[in-house]
Structures are given as structure tokens and as C-alpha cells.
Amino acid sequence: MRHFHPPAGRFDGLIGGSPCQDFSPLNRAPGNNSQEMLDQYCRVVTAAQPDWFLHENVSRVPEFEIPGYTQQRFTLDLAWFSEYSRLRVFTFGSKNGRLLNPMQGKKGVVIGTAVTGNDERSFSACCQIQGLDRNFDLPDLTLTAKKQVVANGVPRELGDYIAGLICEQYYGTEAKVVALNEDIRRCGCGRQVLGRQKTSSATCRKRLSRRVKSA
């Protein structure tokens, strides 16, 4: 990133998510890399001069301003779109002053947390939580590296929603979202189940066991 110098005026929008590790409350020994990379992101936007930019990070990311842009900062939680919680902060800026009108929180039933690089859940489960197909794979990486790559990404549901906001509220066009994860499996209670799970909780397992015995 330090040596990346984009041409000016060639991009309509610039989307990025600089490293978040030093801003995360889970990091007990933060360094300065996250702040440095956030500064590099701002430098790249300033050099590229896109019509708009979008930045994503954890909730404790410092606020920043890029000259020449009208900006807004808002939060979205994956729990507003699925049954897994992942709170993220987005900063959107535009040259023409046009901003987005994102939804407010509508938190539903939460049965799990965000995917992390050292996640104990299976790789297939991590992919499903992030909105990827169960058969998604990164064959050239170790299992730990695969989970880290998937964890670093913005969950599909959040990405689709943000893309829709920009299409509809900035460009005035309807977003066309391609469904990738159509094989979601659910427990009898309606909650999503991952990997080899058949039920979402101990209560549902007991209920299923009683049904099998009675049959």
C-alpha cells in the first residue's frame, strides 16, 4: 500500500477496509499498523479522487476526514440481516454531497458471533456465516489461513445491503444481487444450522430425539 499510487480521476468509487487488529477490543497488545494503513487508505482516496468512497472497519476505528468530501459514519450489524452478530462501522464520502440513508438497528434472534481468524467452528460453518456457499474453498491455503481470509471479509449480507444503498440512493438505479448461498439449512425451529448440525440448540436436539423415539 505504501508504494501504491493510483491515477486520478479514473475511478467512480473506491472501496476499502484497512486492517482492524489494533483497533479491536480483543487485541491486548495493539500496535500502530492499523492507524498507518488507515492513513494510507486516506492517501489513496486523496490521490485517486473518486466520486465517492466507502471504508469499513470495527466499531473502535478512529474517525477521519478526507478534504473535498461530504462524509457520514454509520454502523451495521450482521445480526440485522442474519442470526449472527458482527458489528461494523462504515464511512461513506461523496464529492457531490449526496449521502446514504442506512437502516437503523433491527436486531433479531442471535445464535452466534462473528467469524474470527482462530474460529473453532468448521471452515464450512465459517463460510456459511459470512454468506459464502458451503462448498467455497481456498485450496492453496492452510486451514488457519483460510479462516483468516474468510473472517477478514465483509459478510455477504452486509455487502449486498451496502451495494444496494449505493445503487439506489447514489445512482438512482435498482441493485441486482446475485444469490450465492441458496443452500441454507434450518432447524425445525427456523434457525440456521451449520456444518453437520441437524439442530440449533440442546432443546431442539431433545425435541428431535423425542420425535425419533415416538416414531
In short, what is this structure?
The protein has 215 residues and is α/β, with parallel strands linked by helices. The chain has five helices and eight strands.
Q: Could you explain how this protein is built, in words?
A:
The chain is an alpha/beta fold and 215 residues long. The protein is 28% helix and 16% strand. It is built from five helices and eight strands, in the order E-H-E-E-E-E-E-H-H-H-E-E-H. Helix 1 links the parallel strand 1 (13-16) and strand 2. The longest helix has 16 residues, at 33-48.
How many alpha or pi helices? 5
**Beta-strand content estimate:** 15-25%
The sequence of SSEs as H and E is EHEEEEEHHHEEH
Largest sheet: 4 strands, mixed
Distance between the termini: 62 Å
Q: What's the arrangement of strands in the largest beta sheet?
A: 1-2-5-3
Shape: globular
Radius of gyration: 20 Å
Can you tell me the residue ranges where pLDDT is under 50 for at least 5 consecutive residues?
none
SS class:
alpha/beta
Q: Give the overall average pLDDT.
A: 84
Number of strands: 8
**Portion in helices:** 25-40%
